[in-house]
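Progress note, project year one: complex with manganese (II) ion.
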Amino acid sequence: MVHDALNFVVSIILSTMKVTFLGHATIYVEINGKKILFDPFVSPNELAKDIDVDAIEADYIFVSHGHEDHVADVERIAKRTGATIVSNFEIAMWFNAKGCTNYHPMNHGGKWKFDFGTVKYVNAVHSSTLPDGKSGGNPGGFVFETSQGNFYYAGDTALTMDMKLIPLSTKLDFAILPIGDNFTMGVDDAIQAAQFVQVEKVLAMHFDTFGFIRVDHKQAIAKFREADIQLTLLGIGESAEM
Ligand code: NI
Ligand code: MN
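Model obtained:
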C-alpha cells in the first residue's frame, strides 16, 4: 500500500508511466486509475503462454487495426471485463455484432476526451482486413494526452510523413513503435519515426513473434543509442517506467 502510494507520487513527479509488455503488440498501462489494453493477442501467441489471458484486466481495449495478431483476444477479454472497445468505426461495429456492446468508434483525425485523458486516432500505413475477411476500415494509431504523460501507440505502420503532424499538437513523452520489419517499420525506420514524432524514449513492439519479424536486440538498442534515443525492449510480462 505504502509502496503503491510511493510509486504513484514518483510517477507524478517524474511524469512516468508504468507500461507492461504482454507480447507482440499487446501493451497494458494504467492511466489515472483506468486499465488500458492495446491489441490483445495473447492466447494464440506461443511466446506468451505464461500470460493468463483470463486474468488480464481492462477498462478500455484500444484496437489499432483488424488483423488477427491484434484482435485475437479482444472479444474474450471485453466480454469478461465489460471493457469499452475503442477502434475505428468498422472494427467497433464488428465487435458490437459479436455482442461486445461497450464500444467507442473513432476515425482518423478525430479525438475524444475519455475519463483518463484525450485520445486522437491517427494515420497508419498498413492494411486492416478482419479475420473473417470483412473490412476493418483503415488502420490507425493512437495519440494519448493525459495528466500522467503523453504517448503515441503507432500500431502496425510504415514510416510515414504523417507522423510529423503529431508533435505539432502534442509534446510526447515516449512512443510505442513496431520495429520488427517485413510487415511494419524496421529498426532504421523506427529511429526515423522517433525523430519525426520527437521522442527520446521508445518502447518496442511487433518483434520476434514470428520468423519474419525476429530482431537482433543488442543491435537494435545500439542503433537507437547512436541516434540518442533510448530503446526499451521488454520480455513478455515485463514492465518499464516510460
Ligand atoms: Ni497488421
Ligand atoms: Mn501485426
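The longest strand covers residues 140-146.
The two ends are 22 Å apart (CA to CA).
No further modelling is planned for this target in the current period.
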